[in-house]
Specification:
The protein is α/β, with parallel strands linked by helices and 222 residues long. Helix content is 40%, strand content 23%. The protein has helices spanning 10-22, 33-42, 59-68, 84-92, 105-118, 152-163, 171-178, 189-201, and strands at residues 2-6, 26-30, 47-51, 53-54, 57-58, 75-79, 97-100, 126-129, 132-135, 140-143, 146-148, 210-213, 217-220. It is elongated, with a radius of gyration of 18 Å. 32% of the residues are buried.
Length: 222
């Protein structure tokens, strides 16, 4: 199960993230409205947990944007606000559940698991772009008739690019998927990883599939 947590309190976000990971729930954390919107739109998650008060916007607005984009991922609103009108506003924005702070971590986990069961996310298991084929469950990658062996990080990068094929994905979105929210997106580690992946899936093949858009990010496509 994959969860996106959008929470601006670093201490609370760390506690929730560590707790969910101890429950074998893969968790990606965003600390502000813009980053949360980017990851919600580009990522594939089973549940999204949103705080209401965020730098740059509100969880209500983010929830509405997610729904306007046609994303049906279950959303749990998490906030210190407990007024009835706030709960109603959250549900009217498209949220599926509402939990007020302070809360028992066991209840948060139970609600997340219940939402994931109620709305199973259907994610394709195989992807193809030109003659590149990627099987997510088996991690098998081929280009034409050539089997390509990738490291765990190389596969994570390719997985994210091909799941968003045709779209530009930013450095921050990639680093959050391949590493975690604590990774410094301004180091050159990402460029090194992209070069390694290019050597394996582009060198010696046509058409070239990994494209760099300076100042924007990367795009995978023929």
């Amino acid at each position: 199960m994959r969860v996106l947590l959008v929470e601006d309190d670093p201490e609370l976000a760390s506690v929730i993230t560590d707790g969910l990971r101890n429950q074998h729930i893969e968790t990606s954390a965003a600390r502000d409205f813009v980053t949360g919107r980017e990851r919600a739109v580009l990522g594939s998650f089973d549940v999204i947990v949103l705080d209401v008060l965020l730098p740059g916007g509100t969880g209500f607005d983010l929830c509405r944007i997610i729904r306007e984009r046609g994303i049906e991922t279950p959303i749990l609103m998490l906030t210190a606000r407990d007024a009835v009108e706030d709960r109603v506003r959250g549900l009217e924005s498209g949220a599926d559940d509402y939990l007020t702070k302070p809360f028992a971590f066991m209840e948060l986990t139970a609600r997340i698991k219940a939402l994931a069961r109620r709305h199973p996310t259907i994610v394709p298991e195989q992807y193809s772009v030109a003659d590149l084929h990627v099987d997510i469950p088996t991690r098998a990658v081929t280009r034409g008739d050539v089997a390509i062996a990738l490291t765990a990080k190389e596969f994570a990068l390719l997985e994210f690019l091909i799941q968003n094929a045709g779209n530009v994905v930013t450095r921050s979105a990639i680093t959050a998927h391949v590493w975690d929210e604590n990774h410094d997106p301004f180091t050159n580690v990402l460029e090194v990883l992209v070069r390694r992946l290019r050597r394996k899936i582009d060198d010696g093949f046509e058409p070239k599939l990994i494209h760099t858009l300076r100042g924007a990010g990367y795009r995978l496509g023929a």
